[in-house]
Backbone:
C-alpha cells in the first residue's frame, strides 16, 4: 500500500465519480444549503445516485440493514461521495452510516438502549447531571447525519421500523426547566451542548443557549458538540448566519473570561479533505479550540496505522484528539464493537506517536452510568469471558460496574456459554468471586 501523508488533503472533484452528482459544480457542492437539501434520507436514493455502480445483491443487503438498525438514514452528499463505492462492504464510512444486514450480529445479552444510564441521571428532561461540576444538555434530537451506532439511538433521529422515539427536533419549551436547574446548581461550571447535533440548531438557538448559559455566573465553560466538521465542513465555510451566531457566543465568552469550545467527532481519516482544512483554518484564525471524540470501531479505526494517522492528521488540522471511546453497549452495534484488550493495545501503540497533548485518552464510558474511565483502569479483566469490572470512586462511590467484550471476539465454547442464561449467571458469579468485588447492577 502507498504510504499516506497526513499533511496532504484531497482537493479533487471526488463527488463527480457518483453518477447522480456528476453534473454538480464545485460551487454547488460547496453550498451548505445544497448539501443539506440533497442529503440522502432513503435507501432507494442510493440506487438512484449510483446507477449500476452497486449490485442488486448489495442493495438488498442495505434494505435488510434498514430493517434492523435503530437509526434512520441521513447522510450528506459530502460523506456519500467519499465512500469507496468500488468496495462498499469494507468501507469505513459506509459502515458508520449505511449498515448492511449481512454484517449485523446478534446483540450482546446485556446490551441496553440507554447504555450510559443518561435518563437515570437526569434531574430534568434533556439534562444529564452525573459528574459533580459538569452536565450534558440535549437541546435537539436531530443531526446532519445519522450514525447507525449512535449511543442515543433511543432519542435521536426520529422513529424507525425498530424503535419508537418521542420527539423530533429542538424542543425549546423544555429548555427553560434546564436553564432554571443550571441557575440553581452553583456547583456546575461546565455544560456540554449536544443532542443531536449543534449544526442543526438555528443561529437564534445557538445564541439563545449560549447567551443564557454565559449569563449564569458560575458557568465557566461551554462546549457545542457537532459531528458537522467531519461530515459537513461546508457549513463552517458558507453558512454565514450560523457561523456568526457561534462567533457571537464565542467572543462574548472571551469578554467574560469564559471558554466556548467545539467538540467534534471524526472516526476515520477518509472523512478528511481540503474542505476540512479550510473549515478548520477559519475556526482557528478566530481562535476557536476544537477537540475530537472518536468511537473505536471494528473495521473503521481499529488498526494502529489508521488510529495513528488519524491522530496525526487531526493534530495537523489544529483539532485536539481528546477521546477515543470503547464502543457503548447499545443495540445494533455488536459488529462494530471491539474487545477491551484491542482498545488497550491500541492505546499502547498510539501513545508516543506524537505530542502528549495530542494523544487521545482511551476511555470506557461505563454501562450503567459509572462515567468515563481510562481504558486500563479496570479492577479486573478476564479475557476469556470478556468481563471487566470497574470502579468509579468520585462519580459513583461504592459501586461496581461491568463492561462485556463482544461475543464474536470470544472462543466458540465461551460464546455458547454466554447464550445460555444459567451459564451467564455462573460466568458473572465467577468473575465476582475471582475479583473479590460484587457487581452493583444486576445482569440477568
Ligand atoms: C461525557 C460527559 C460529560 C463531559 O465529560 P468530559 O470527560 O469532561 O468530556 C458530561 N456529562 C456527561 C453525562 C457525559 O457523558
Ligand atoms: S452525530 Fe452524534 S448524536 Fe447524531 S447520530 Fe451521530 S453519534 Fe448520534
Residues:
Amino acid at each position: 500500500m502507498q504510504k499516506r501523508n497526513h499533511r496532504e488533503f484531497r482537493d479533487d472533484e471526488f463527488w463527480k465519480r457518483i453518477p447522480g452528482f456528476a453534473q454538480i459544480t464545485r460551487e454547488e457542492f460547496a453550498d451548505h444549503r445544497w448539501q443539506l437539501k440533497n442529503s440522502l434520507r432513503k435507501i432507494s436514493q442510493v440506487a438512484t445516485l449510483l446507477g449500476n455502480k452497486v449490485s442488486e445483491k448489495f442493495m438488498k443487503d442495505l434494505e435488510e440493514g434498514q430493517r434492523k438498525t435503530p437509526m434512520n438514514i441521513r447522510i450528506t452528499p459530502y460523506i456519500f461521495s467519499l465512500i469507496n463505492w468500488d468496495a462498499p462492504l469494507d468501507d469505513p464510512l459506509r459502515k458508520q452510516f449505511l449498515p448492511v444486514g449481512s454484517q449485523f450480529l446478534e446483540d450482546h445479552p446485556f446490551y441496553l438502549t440507554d447504555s450510559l444510564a443518561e435518563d437515570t441521571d437526569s434531574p430534568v428532561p434533556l439534562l444529564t447531571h452525573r459528574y459533580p461540576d459538569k452536565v450534558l444538555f440535549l437541546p435537539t434530537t436531530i443531526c446532519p447525519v445519522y450514525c447507525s451506532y449512535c449511543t442515543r439511538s433511543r432519542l435521536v433521529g426520529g422513529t424507525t421500523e425498530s424503535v419508537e422515539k418521542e420527539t423530533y427536533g429542538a424542543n425549546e419549551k423544555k429548555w427553560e426547566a434546564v436553564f432554571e436547574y443550571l441557575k440553581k446548581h452553583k456547583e456546575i461550571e461546565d455544560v456540554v451542548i449536544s443532542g443531536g447535533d449543534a449544526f442543526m440548531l438555528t443561529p437564534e438557538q445557538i445564541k439563545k443557549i449560549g447567551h443564557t448559559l454565559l449569563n449564569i455566573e458560575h458557568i465557566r465553560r461551554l462546549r457545542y458538540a457537532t459531528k458537522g466538521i467531519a461530515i459537513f465542513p461546508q457549513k463552517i465555510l458558507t453558512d454565514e448566519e450560523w457561523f456568526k451566531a457561534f462567533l457571537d457566543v464565542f467572543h462574548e465568552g472571551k469578554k467574560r473570561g469564559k471558554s466556548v469550545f467545539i467538540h467534534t467527532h471524526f472516526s476515520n481519516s477518509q472523512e478528511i479533505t481540503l474542505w476540512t482544512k479550510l473549515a478548520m483554518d477559519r475556526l482557528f484564525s478566530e481562535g476557536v479550540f476544537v477537540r475530537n471524540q472518536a468511537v473505536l470501531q471494528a473495521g473503521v479505526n481499529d488498526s494502529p496505522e489508521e488510529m495513528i494517522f488519524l491522530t496525526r492528521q487531526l493534530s495537523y488540522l489544529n483539532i485536539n484528539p481528546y477521546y477515543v471511546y470503547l464502543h457503548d453497549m447499545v443495540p445494533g452495534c455488536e459488529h462494530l464493537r471491539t474487545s477491551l484488550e484491542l482498545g488497550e493495545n491500541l492505546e499502547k501503540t498510539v501513545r508516543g506517536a506524537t505530542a502528549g497533548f495530542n494523544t487521545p485518552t482511551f476511555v470506557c464510558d461505563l454501562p450503567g452510568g459509572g462515567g468515563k474511565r481510562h481504558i486500563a483502569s479496570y479492577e479486573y479483566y478476564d479475557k476469556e469471558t470478556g468481563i471487566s469490572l470497574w470502579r468509579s470512586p468520585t462519580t459513583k462511590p461504592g459501586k461496581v460496574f461491568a463492561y462485556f467484550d463482544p461475543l464474536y471476539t470470544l472462543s466458540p465454547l465461551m460464546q455458547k456459554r454466554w447464550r445460555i442464561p444459567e451459564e451467564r449467571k455462573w460466568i458473572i458469579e465467577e468473575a465476582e468471586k475471582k475479583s473479590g468485588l460484587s457487581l452493583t447492577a444486576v445482569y440477568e
